[in-house]
Inverse folding.
């Protein structure tokens, strides 16, 4: 562990907060009326999986939790865990599903992810801004329906349902924002 | 500017911004206030240790340089006008605070509204705030709700349509603007939300009414990290920001939080019979800090002492040492009538009425 100050804060790094490693999800500067500068953070608890807000004094020191980022292949899901493999030495590691929250609906077998590791334990993974997934089930769009913004629901290869424009068909590859679950674009037909 | 070509709907919030500013002016014309224009480029400032200033140079015909500053607020200039006998007045202008980047509520250049009432107290300014914001709401109601319906279109149209009179939605929080608004003193808020007794973190009689060590003990018990260099103000504000501010203006009504500890007095008058508190309030709506009001300090000697204290803090915090506005002190010496005034962030007001998350969303040319 090493000490850092609020000026070293970056999104995605891990710090110790009240005895538990937390990831900085968001931070911004605040100045109360007639007061010093402060840094307001959103911290995600690794074990509790809860996001809390905490405001630090500008310049306050905190412990950074050293975390290795390792490229690993996602193999499969068990009841509570995700199993990843290091493709260089074939070592496997379990990660509790709850650590990745909503992303568990979008994680794809065989894909490479950047996994956060601390003391041999998986703390989470870098959640991509967009995921590209194949549409497995889709009803035909209703012909002649040209109302802008008309949507239908399709099921993607990971089993998650997503609301998409009517022109999306079975077999298309689409991009989705895993954080909001919103459709972004069609990648290929 | 490309974003406007791509999405012409974005103009809507700037059209509403236009109307908000026009309607603010109409409100004060109706109240028979003078509108003033004060300088943005100034040779001297009120020393404020918590602000970073913009510094520049004026060059005369001979190439001689003179240090100048951009105004951090129009307060000093307006008070000079009031001391000279102007009467009730307001100004909408640009002010500048350096270093205020990386925040959803700050832009180094921002639009500020200030107004002052003579022979009035901060309670009168609270009424002004209620009246002004209701006036804006009533005059712009169709635009405000049209905007919100437009924005919420696909999500919660039904919840907007259910909105009763005087209700607005800011970042999913419903706020009823009908007066009276919540009025909460800092001392009561400390007890209510942080379970701290003001007497346990201050001294009543000693020379130092605000010993940092005393507050540090309470803060450490709560789990805060405190070191010897932290001032009473820093520790207090950290508790305030973490435990009190999330409750301000977020329980369905706007909140006036009033009577601040003296280290956060700014230019406010100290309460009679209570040397620890200054007559200052802040207005919060839906968690947005919108305005800062004082019963104005009119005592020349007290103001002079605060200037000196601020210069000590400026040195300690390694901020730019400004040139003190001695004309402002002189104005107090010749006599500032009892008055109360407020600074209100116009950009934040626009954020509120357009349900915008960041100040950048309501500025045509935001920095960064």
């Amino acid at each position: 562990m090493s000490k850092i100050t609020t000026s070293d804060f970056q999104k995605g790094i891990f710090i110790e907060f009240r005895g538990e490693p937390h990831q900085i999800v968001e931070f911004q500067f605040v100045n109360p009326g007639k007061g010093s500068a402060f840094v307001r953070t959103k911290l995600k608890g690794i074990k509790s999986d809860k996001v809390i807000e905490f405001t630090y004094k500008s310049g306050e020191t905190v412990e950074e939790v050293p975390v290795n980022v390792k490229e690993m292949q996602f193999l499969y899901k068990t009841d509570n865990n995700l199993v990843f493999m290091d493709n260089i030495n074939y070592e496997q590691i379990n990660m509790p599903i709850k650590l990745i929250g909503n992303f568990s609906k979008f994680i794809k077998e065989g894909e490479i992810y950047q996994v956060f590791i601390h003391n041999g334990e998986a703390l989470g993974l870098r959640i991509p801004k967009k995921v590209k997934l194949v549409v497995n089930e889709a009803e035909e769009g209703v012909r002649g329906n040209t109302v802008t913004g008309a949507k239908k629901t399709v099921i993607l290869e990971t089993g998650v349902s997503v609301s998409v424009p009517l022109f999306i068909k079975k077999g298309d590859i689409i991009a989705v924002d895993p954080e909001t679950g919103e459709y972004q674009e069609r990648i290929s037909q | 500017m490309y974003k406007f070509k791509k999405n012409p709907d974005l103009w809507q919030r700037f059209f509403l911004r236009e109307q908000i500013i026009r309607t603010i002016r109409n409100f004060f014309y109706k109240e028979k206030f003078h509108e003033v224009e004060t300088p943005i480029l100034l040779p001297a400032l009120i020393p404020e240790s918590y602000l970073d200033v913009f510094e520049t140079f004026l060059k005369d015909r001979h190439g001689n340089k003179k240090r100048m500053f951009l105004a951090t607020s129009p307060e000093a200039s307006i008070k000079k006008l009031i001391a000279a006998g102007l009467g009730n007045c307001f100004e909408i202008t640009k002010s500048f605070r350096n270093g205020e980047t990386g925040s959803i509520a700050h832009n180094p250049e921002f639009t500020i509204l200030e107004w002052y009432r003579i022979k009035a107290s901060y309670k009168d300014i609270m009424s002004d705030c209620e009246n002004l914001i209701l006036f804006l709401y009533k005059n712009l109601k169709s635009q405000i709700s049209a905007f919100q319906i437009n924005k919420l279109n696909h999500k919660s149209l039904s919840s907007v349509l259910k909105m009763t009179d005087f209700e607005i939605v800011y970042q999913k929080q419903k706020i009823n603007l009908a007066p009276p608004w919540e009025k909460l003193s800092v001392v009561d808020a400390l007890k209510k939300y942080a379970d701290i007794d003001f007497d346990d973190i201050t001294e009543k009689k000693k020379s130092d009414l605000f010993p940092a060590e005393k507050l540090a003990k309470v803060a450490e018990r709560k789990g805060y990290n405190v070191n010897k260099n932290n001032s009473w103000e820093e520790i207090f504000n950290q508790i305030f920001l973490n435990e009190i501010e999330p409750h301000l203006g977020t329980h369905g009504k706007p909140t006036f939080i009033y009577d601040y500890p003296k280290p956060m007095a700014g230019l406010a008058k100290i309460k009679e019979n209570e040397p620890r508190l200054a007559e200052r309030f802040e207005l919060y709506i839906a968690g947005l800090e919108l305005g800062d009001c004082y019963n104005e300090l009119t005592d020349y000697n007290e103001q002079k002492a605060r200037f000196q204290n601020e210069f000590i803090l400026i040195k300690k915090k390694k901020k730019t040492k400004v040139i003190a506005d001695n004309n402002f002190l002189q104005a107090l010496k010749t006599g500032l009538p009892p008055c109360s005034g407020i600074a209100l962030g116009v950009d934040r007001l626009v954020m509120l009425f357009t349900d915008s998350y960041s100040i950048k969303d309501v500025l045509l040319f935001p920095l960064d």
The longest strand of chain A covers residues 20-30. The CA atoms of residues 172 and 189 of chain A lie 4 Å apart.
